[in-house]
TrEMBL record:
Main localization of the protein described in the UniProt heading: membrane
Name of the protein described by the UniProt record: DoxX family protein
Record localization: Membrane
Pfam families tied to this protein: DoxX_2
Keyword Membrane belongs to the record: yes
Cellular component GO terms, alphabetical: membrane
Segments traversing the membrane: 6-26, 47-67, 73-91, 103-120
Record organism: Stackebrandtia nassauensis (strain DSM 44728 / CIP 108903 / NRRL B-16338 / NBRC 102104 / LLR-40K-21)
InterPro entries in the record: DoxX
Membrane topology listed for this record: Multi-pass membrane protein
Keyword vocabulary terms for this entry: Membrane, Transmembrane, Transmembrane helix
Length: 127
């Protein structure tokens, strides 16, 4: 179980670090032209940059506390926080009639829920 949690956590951390970096370093106008990024039209450039920073911090929060042993309770909390972002993303994309993208976000949500459950429960770093 611990190995599965580490694998899923690593994949999620990489995905959120990549997504956050993309949002942070690519201008809003260019992001709007990317496939599946129609949601960008609904938000300001400032919000997109804030979302990027939160995603990058969440990715770091999935890995660093466990690796360093400093405040490992932050791992499941980061998973919960990123899960809330995925709920919001799924809602936005459902409203925009982008059901396929919303389903992808729900898959991320399920994986984040698995990490949160595993690290709060049976494979907790603090227990």
């Amino acid at each position: 179980m611990n190995t599965a949690l580490w694998i899923v956590t690593g994949i999620l951390a990489a995905a959120f670090a990549f997504a956050g970096s993309t949002k942070l370093f690519i201008p809003r106008e260019k992001l709007m032209k990317a496939p599946g990024a129609g949601w960008v039209e609904d938000f300001s450039a400032g919000f997109i940059k804030l979302l990027a920073v939160v995603e990058i911090l969440g990715a770091l929060g999935l890995i660093l506390p466990a690796v360093t042993g400093i405040a490992p309770i932050l791992v499941p909390l980061a998973a919960v926080g990123l899960g809330l972002i995925m709920v919001g993303a799924a809602v936005v994309e459902t409203r925009r009639q982008e059901v396929k993208h919303a389903l992808v976000n729900l898959v991320y949500l399920a994986l984040l829920a698995f990490v949160a459950w595993g690290r709060f429960g049976p494979e907790s770093f603090t227990g």
